[in-house]
Amino acid sequence: LQIAFERLKQRLAAEGYFDERHKQRLPFLPQKISVITSPTGAVVHDIITVARRRFPNIPLQIVPVKVQGVGCENEIASALELVNRRAGTDVIILARGGGSLEDLQAFNTERVAMAIFNSRIPVVSAVGHETDFTIADFIADVRAPTPSAAAELVVPDKNELERRCVEIQSKLHSIIFNYLSTLNKKIADLTRRFKDPRKKVQELWIRIDDMVGRLRRLSVMHLRRENERWSGLSHRLQASSPIHRVQKSQL
To answer: Do 77 and 179 touch, CB atoms closer than 8 A?
Structure first.
């Protein structure tokens, strides 16, 4: 079994199945999580407990399979394919507890490896203990050291998210308040520098009235000077007229 494991591992690695370019990112906040594991035992209980503690609103779908024994690799692969055919799941946790190389044999088969690789949904492998490594771990999008750790990776902490949301909201309020305060200061400054249009019109009317008054006074002065000039010319004409000279000479 160890020789078969090493050969399959080397072949899949050489063909690029373990490359990072094939790895899918886990969703930030999954709407639904499918857990492919045995329906009994500590593994499923641990995952449910951690998920409910971190974010109780996220639905968990338990897909029961045999994780040991004859034909269990076909059940696991079929479960992966079934979840991919159904809509709604955002991430898959493939999990089982620890065991010997023989116990973990289903997760070292090419059938399960190809089902994980072909999954359109990100797969987290949580098989065995922290020191156990399987082909499923290498080909999955993410490897978790334990099933509980897989739930920690997949399910965000709701309390932490709420705390971050409050913190971001507070920062946004502060930024908006400062921005509005800056705008208010600018408006107040512009208001002080900006004259009321009505006052401007009033000032223009005063200037017009002043100019009209000055124009009237200048017109009166001009007419008076012209009148005086014409009166002087009239006297001079009268003094130099022939009749006036005859009259003056007779005297």
So the answer is: no
